[in-house]
């Protein structure tokens, strides 16, 4: 009987504490005429803040993506339309039309796109199609595959309504002919018109998508494919965690699966900045000749926090958030 009485008293005490807490959180205007209090619903989640981040100084691309977000469209639409700006810019000799060719004079393009569900589409070694990013999206949405290559990718693009055109501009042809005089193959660190555009975006729903597009290394061997179109290397998205994308020497990014690594590090609790730094250090650890090439990463987490890091100085990236377009200089490892 004593034990039963103790349990009853404990239960009443607990109930009293709960009721008291409820009443304490109420104001007079919430009380009904009977004196019963109605608790207000408290919202603790932060508002979603749309944003865009991209490799290199590409204000026109990030503005386009931002405008798409402001129109209420998805992050997927934003990254596709954002990088298309660079693909169509003939003065940009590393993405889309006007890209520098391989050593045989062929402009071959790689691109991939990834949405909030983790679906992925890509094309590699595609020729004569100005917007490989849009073909990559078609691969993702309209085929049972995730990656198409070469003539097959081109055929699919034409069948999907894309118009083939010559992508080798006179400017790029002239540069190629000049290169052929000595035909030396050495990657250039920090090509300031950038060698890849990778873009990540968060829309009003808090969903993340990413895109990556490139013409690859200038004067590469025919058939060479870098990291840009390869899931987990040039780009990776996990909508629960965040996303990352890469630029620079694709072979080194491929060997360390850099973008996937960054997202997994963020899953373990690292900030986007810490994760980017660790991914660059992995490249350096595995490559004694790291001073001869550049690798850079950008990342964003679910909270909209960003990070960027690279091996050498002068890697830039662009953000668009709160109606403001900003170019940033990434921190770097090789400060000797």
Notes on the protein architecture:
By secondary structure, the chain is an alpha+beta fold. It has 9 helices and 13 strands. It folds into 2 domains: 1-44, no CATH class; 51-332, Glutamine Phosphoribosylpyrophosphate, subunit 1, domain 1, CATH 3.60.20.30. It has helices spanning 2-24, 59-70, 75-88, 132-142, 150-159, 170-179, 250-256, 258-267, 272-286, and strands at 51-55, 109-114, 120-126, 147-149, 197-202, 208-214, 235-238, 242-248, 295-301, 306-310, 316-321, 324-329, 331-332. The strands form 2 sheets. The protein has an 8-stranded mixed sheet with strand order 4-3-2-6-5-1-11-12. The radius of gyration is 25 Å and the shape is globular. Residues 1-44 have low confidence and may be disordered.
List the keywords.
336 residues, alpha+beta, Glutamine Phosphoribosylpyrophosphate, subunit 1, domain 1, 13 strands, 21% strand
